[in-house]
Amino acid sequence: MLKEKVFLTKTDTAIGFVSQNAHRLTEIKQRPPSKYYIMALPSLAKLQTFTRVPSIHKNRVRRARRTTFVMPNGHSYRVVRSRHHLLLLDRLGYAYTTSANRSGSSYDEAFAKDAADVVVSPLNTAGSPSAIYKLGKSCHKRIR
Description:
Layout: E1 7-10, E2 15-19, H1 22-29, E3 38-41, H2 44-50, H3 58-63, E4 67-70, E5 76-79, H4 83-92, E6 95-99, H5 109-115, E7 118-119, E8 131-135, E9 140-142
Parallel strand pairs: 1-7, 3-5, 4-8
Antiparallel strand pairs: 1-2, 2-6, 3-6, 4-5, 8-9
């Protein structure tokens, strides 16, 4: 079943793990279970099913490319527009995404391929990570 699998793929920002199972990602990355993952979504309509974007930030979120937003509820979301990544997200509906490495370590292709259930080719070189903004009810703050 697709919902239980961990995919290794080129995301819109870097090479990463993609899955609907956050618990499996936590085990693979060996990171604290209290940390949230970025939820990648295929459209703004899908984003609206998970959270409410504060009115003051709606244009910013709609126009953003390769940008993650931390909403007032503390969860992170990124609307994906990369065709390669969208092929997978359209089938899953949504997915948690994270870099393909152990927590605090650099990318190791052998580890990543061994940890993933499915490797989606091609795995091009890693890109830069997404910008991250924390959105409040009236202001925003750049985190990364």
